[in-house]
Amino acid sequence: xxxxxxxxxxxxxxxxxxxxxxxxxxxxxxxxxxxxxxxxxxxxxxxxxxxxxxxxxxxxxxxxxxxxxxxxxxxxxxxxxxxxxxxxxxxxxxxxxxxxxxxxxxxxxxxxxxxxxxxxxxxxxxxxxxxxxxxxxxxxxxxxxxxxxxxxxxxxxxxxxxxxxxxxxxxxxxxxxxxxx
Amino acid sequence: xxxxxxxxxxxxxxxxxxxxxxxxxxxxxxxxxxxxxxxxxxxxxxxxxxxxxxxxxxxxxxxxxxxxxxxxxxxxxxxxxxxxxxxxxxxxxxxxxxxxxxxxxxxxxxxxxxxxxxxxxxxxxxxxxxxxxxxxxxxxxxxxxxxxxxxxxxxxxxxxxxxxxxxxxxxxxxxxxxxxxxxxxxxxxxxxxxxxxxxxxxxxxxxxxxxxxxxxxxxxxxxxxxxxxxxxxxxxxxxxxxxxxxxxxxxxxxxxxxxxxxxxxxxxxxxxxxxxxxxxxxxxxxxxxxxxxxxxxxxxxxxxxxxxxxxxxxxxxxxxxxxxxxxxxxxxxxxxxxxxxxxxxxxxxxxxxxxxxxxxxxxxxxxxx
Lengths: 181, 369
Fold this sequence. Notes:
Chain A is an all-alpha fold. Helices cover 64% and strands 0% of the residues of chain A. In chain A, helix 1 (22-42) runs antiparallel to helix 2 (45-53), helix 3 packs across helix 6 and helix 6 packs antiparallel against helix 7.
């Protein structure tokens, strides 16, 4: 029996999808937001009121939720991948540059990395085991336990130079302990 | 017995010491899993209950980094990076095979049945085993020199021993080895510089205590350098523990656990300094009965190897034994193989043993039978 690919549709089960003209509705709402923006810049209160009343708040709330969710997912996925990459990296340079570039992309990423670290750690152990097995390495139960235990001790500070770490996670703003700890 | 490294690996950027050690520990665990897997996949260590149960020992210091070179050559830099990458990928731990135990002693004792003319060598190995058992150690650093007439089974003994001990073995025919580079690598300044056999066995292999067979050590030629030069260091425990391959001089590796078996016909041709480093055992020709047993085993092994046990008679006949009794074990093996090949071509069930021309006038030989 062939393995079936997991379909993406299951990620989109909101009421908004009940609308038959869903895509047209999304485009229309984007244009509507543009009109609100113009009305606000012109200070036209009547126009603002009209345009705002035409907004689908249900959809906007869902879009915000969806963006947040996908960003979270990206942070978990990328941190797990980068951690596994650092663990498996055998080059002299190490994986520090990749971490720095990733954290530097936008201010939200260091915060997300810190928040999603426990998930990234457990996913990274899975990725390491998968990569080793794909390379033909015999990874039995005890070896998996060894990897999981060692990965669970990893913190963000372990993966980059101290100066880089300080830049993204200044000690003064870190009231809740060590990021990734 | 496992000494997992806790210090940063060579070439890593500097980080906080404590944190650095966490990533280094994780990388060391992954490297050890790779090495154990290699040990299992090569068919050795399979007797262990689990691959993680294999004891491992440190064979180099992972904190040592390449010396800052002045060479601007891209090839040199690339080679250096490749070596560091190998060291990081494989880590500093290697499996310790042939752990002393009653099972290992029983395995070694099997040699009494198959190699009756090596009793003294077998006794020496069993003595080592029982001493090491008291320390919960493994068979390491054995230095055995087997000497005697040609074709009495010296190399065969060494290879059988490796098989029984579940250790990887490498045979170097020293009569054709051209230079010391074969054992200890070639100097860095050569464009084709590469590590020698010892470095490859320990660093690229899975075991800390492989067997290296130095075949015909008395026939070594020093035309292109002295191949035995490196042995002065490698056969002495302390200096072997800090052995540096010439192509990677910045990294001392622990080669003191390598087991060495040398074979020679004329031991008097060896330098006393080399001889003093070995436990010497004179190997005589097998007795008539032992020879018969040995010939039968060679024949049975040959039939099994080519799945011919149902095609030919399973036992050699008295006439065939007599024909083979005057030749060396090596020649007997060759004659049997040729006879089986010929019979297959002729679609015959009869083996025609073609003994070589008479070389020893003192012995009766049979030609075609």
